[in-house]
């Protein structure tokens, strides 16, 4: 499968640099998979497309303030780390700048010594560009990061946020992501209340967004791209709600590609055990890579933003709705002035 078939031209001015206010005032492009029909709506009108008995599944992962700016001990040279996830041995995988100049054994200092990081040798199986460090600090790491760290914005966002909470969903609870599950940024507490009042259950999963958000697909053949593992959890109440909806003929509506990967990972594990239901609760690490041709087991509808060309996320939505339908919808969105990427507008794929 050629990545060139999942490319499109995006004018820089179409990339949203700041979110709209209020959150649910963003635009919503509705794509009907059955006939390819498109509708232009506002996100707050989402409840019109939901039905009693449906289940709306959200990703409760919270962006960790894991961007650290400090200096090299002894030289004072500026260094930046973006913590991604802990290793099994307690070290942290991270992106570093300038990464190539860091040598094993070197110490990095943040916050005048409140946090120190020793550079470790990279593992042979580490993804390209990923470094490992051992962190030294007093108290909990979460407290240290709250004091010293910054919420990492995507590299295509060039303006600082006045309120960092605007890069968190209103339901974010579990710290652990290196980037926001951005499809959920459009929801407000009031909109969620309206959805629940319709008889739609709103239930959570967790998938902590990791390296692949920052890493483009560089291979020409899509199948050759290695997916980085990310932690996910599907709680019992969510598995029960999904199974119940499917049994009653309701739909499972996933908010974002991260939610899709969490649900489908749990469904695949349940299918492999031959349990005879859509999914069981569980947690673990997933490297599920969804390409066109994949058979979806748990998800019936998807709320998502507009994704980068030649990205794993574009491959996923193309698997869900068809490559031609997605690329045609993207061209319509560009012509109609929709805003793209993290702070941009949304799609509802039915």
Overview features:
single chain; 350 residues; alpha/beta; QueA-like; Thrombin, subunit H; nine-stranded mixed beta sheet; six-stranded antiparallel β-barrel; 6 helices; 17 strands; 20% helix
Structure description:
The structure is a single chain. 20% of the residues lie in helices and 26% in strands. The protein contains six helices and 17 strands. The longest helix is centred in the C-terminal third of the chain and has 16 residues, at 257-272. It has helices at residues 141-148, 189-197, 236-248, 257-272, 312-321, 323-335; strands at residues 27-31, 38-42, 55-59, 61-63, 67-72, 78-86, 92-97, 107-110, 115-120, 130-137, 174-177, 201-207, 230-234, 252-255, 282-286, 301-305, 346-349. The model has no long low-confidence stretch (mean pLDDT 93). The chain has 350 residues and is an alpha/beta fold. The strands form three sheets. It has a nine-stranded mixed beta sheet with strand order 2-1-17-16-14-3-12-13-15. The protein has a six-stranded antiparallel beta barrel with strand order 5-6-7-10-9-8. A two-stranded parallel sheet has the order 4-11. It folds into two domains: 3-63 and 163-349, QueA-like (3-Layer(aba) Sandwich); 67-148, Thrombin, subunit H, CATH 2.40.10.
Summarize the structure.
With 350 residues, this protein is of the alpha/beta class. The chain contains six helices and 17 strands. The two termini are 25 Å apart.
């Amino acid at each position: 499968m050629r990545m060139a078939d999942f490319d499109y031209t995006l004018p820089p001015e179409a990339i949203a640099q700041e979110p709209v206010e209020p959150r649910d005032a963003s635009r919503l492009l509705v794509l009907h998979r059955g006939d390819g029909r498109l509708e232009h709506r506002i996100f707050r009108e989402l409840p019109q497309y939901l039905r009693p008995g449906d289940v709306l599944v959200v990703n409760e992962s919270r962006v960790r303030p894991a961007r650290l700016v400090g200096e090299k001990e002894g030289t004072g040279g500026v260094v930046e780390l973006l913590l991604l996830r802990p290793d099994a041995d307690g070290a942290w995988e991270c992106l570093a700048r300038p990464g190539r100049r860091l040598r094993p054994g070197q110490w990095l200092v943040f916050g005048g010594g409140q946090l120190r990081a020793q550079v470790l040798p990279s593992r042979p199986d580490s993804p390209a560009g990923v470094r490992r460090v051992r962190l030294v600090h007093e108290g909990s790491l979460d407290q240290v990061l709250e004091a010293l760290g910054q919420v990492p914005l995507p590299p295509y966002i060039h303006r600082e946020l006045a309120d960092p909470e605007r890069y968190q969903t209103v339901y974010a609870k579990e710290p652990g992501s290196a980037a926001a599950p951005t499809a959920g940024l459009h929801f407000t507490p009031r909109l969620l209340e309206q959805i629940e009042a319709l008889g739609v259950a709103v239930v959570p999963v967790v998938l902590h967004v990791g390296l692949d958000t920052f890493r483009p697909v560089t291979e020409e053949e899509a199948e050759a791209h290695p997916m980085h593992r990310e932690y996910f959890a599907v709680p019992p109440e969510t598995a029960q709600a999904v199974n119940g909806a499917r049994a009653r003929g309701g739909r499972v509506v996933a908010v974002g590609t991260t939610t899709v990967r969490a649900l489908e990972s749990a469904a695949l594990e349940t299918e492999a055990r031959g349990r005879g239901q859509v999914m069981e609760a569980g947690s673990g690490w997933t490297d599920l890579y969804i390409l066109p041709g994949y058979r979806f087991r748990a998800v019936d509808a998807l709320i998502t933003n507009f994704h980068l060309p030649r990205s794993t996320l574009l491959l996923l939505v193309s698997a869900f709705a068809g490559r031609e339908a997605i690329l045609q919808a993207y061209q319509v969105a560009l012509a109609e002035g929709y805003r793209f990427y993290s702070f941009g507008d949304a799609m509802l794929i039915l």
